[in-house]
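Please predict the structure of the following assembly.
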Amino acid sequence: MEKFTKLISRAVPLATENIDTDQIIPARFLKATDTLGFGDNVFKDWRFHKDGSINESFALNNSNYSGSILVAGDNFGCGSSREHAAWALVGYGFKVIVSSFFADIFKGNALNNGLLPVQVSEDFLKSLLKELQDNPSSEVIIDLENQTMGSPIGNTTFEIDSYKKTCLINGYDDIDFLISKKDKINAYEATL
Amino acid sequence: MGKTLFDKVWDAHVVDSIENGPQVLYIDKHLIHEVTSPQAFNELKKRGIPIARPDKIVATADHNTPTINQHLPIKDELSRKQLEQLSINCKENNIQLYDLGHKNNGIVHVIAPELGITQPGMTMVCGDSHTSTHGAFGTIAFGIGTSQVAQVFASQCLLLEKPKSLRVSVRGKLKKGVLPKDVILYIISKLGTNSGTGYFCEYAGNVFEEMSMEGRMTVCNMSIEMGARGGMIAPDQTTFDYVAGKEFAPKGLDFDKKVASWKTLPTDTDATFDKEYFFEAEDIEPMITYGTNPGMGIKISQNIPDIEDRSFEKSLEYMNFKKGESLINTPINYVFIGSCTNSRIEDFRVAANYVKDKQKAANVHAWLVPGSQKVAKQIKDEGLQTLFEQAGFVLRQPGCSACLAMNDDKIPQGEYCVSTSNRNFEGRQGQGARTILASPLVAAATAVEGRIVDIIKHLN
């Protein structure tokens, strides 16, 4: 997993609430047996009309917006457990998702792929979305070490599990950790 | 202080705890399918890690399988390759696979309970968010991502933070025509799609106690639609009777011993929850959804609410509905009875009972998809297939089908589908398709009438 410490980037505002993983990556693209190529189909049915033409009004198609931070409405990533949603966002180039609320399974999947979910207050999110829409060149600074986020509308802090933080900063994943617990797992199994 | 059902099962499975961090939780059963497992197998192979406990894994092909002509080679190349990969991975790793055509094949959340794989007090996971279904047995069961599938492969454990506890109680007597699906759609319409995020939910009260196991599974199945990772119902005699005699259930003295331990699982009377909600059964009516998330549900007799909100309005635009309108008499051309929510024998009994001596409306394409080979056989053995055929319906072969439209069972652009599945997200049943969630009774009535009807008036 890629290491994550600090990121300074412009951000894409996507002011829709309850964005489910079916929107992030529609089911018809889940037929692959590897983790590559999903970025091409991220938000496919929002980026393109059914006839294949580009939906100009969608945030990701707005040439004013760029950067590796996606700022999205409340309850991001609800629905299906498909990790393909995280692979698609990472594949497209996002490194951070900012929202006022994340669905559980998505949050875990994101962290397991070096994609940082940053949860902010509803008011902060609202102001940030407006700022990015008004001034698309505004930059956002994410500092994982200090758990802070800086922006033209002000600074805020965010929460992250200390174990997961260590994993992200060092590029570790849970498999290494769990295998290191082999003796304890064997001891538990002996009691079954 | 007393413990909840969830606490008892969770605490019994903790292998280790990290200070100020997650816990290592032991997993008793790991269910896998073709869509969310291949990348996990690749990961282990790449790192040279063997699968820790293949004997605790059960595989089935369900998400991406055709529901007609299952004996023929699959036409879609990517789908065929994905299924072939599952067979190869299971064979290489000595994992039990119920492949297409096997008598135990079917939707993962339908087959595990009917085979007795699901048992009270277990921890169960699957790379599928509707794994919450198995909570109907008093089991901690939840959906995981593919990285976590790889973690369970490698260690038979997961690293998790213990969720908070939530209890939803429904007491009283349900009205005629109100099914378990209506109960859970009602709860989600009241609580919203993220009220359960961060929580594990217990359903309590006489309404759930009086439900069959099939009904309890329908309820627990949709826990994730209010954000809860899982839902549970305390095991009781109904549970024990269901499990008894199933293929992989303990037998004889072993079973009696298990029952004695399962009886200790229900929540202690002095246990407390982080959050509690109470509902009256008499307030619940047959439900339908009008929007693009499962929380956007109303009683079938109600009108769409008038809410000033951009996301709400965007959702109605997608559905081509207007604020304040009633859905009664909306013409419907597609009906789907199936999915891990409502494809068990009881669901087909309800539907068959309604369509008996009636005829499917000429405008309706109805897809009736049993959850498993066993359910399909039962439909035939009980004579329900004949009733369906006489009413003009055709039964398809088991699988997830039009619930997520990964196979060819797609609802066309712009069409409404009254569906017994669990999600009405944009495009869920096909690009541009418009899903209306409902019970098998409402779905059957829609198929006969060709439009949405006020089922309560209709039954009287």
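Chain B touches chain A through 66 residues (CB under 8 Å). The longest strand of chain B covers residues 164-171.
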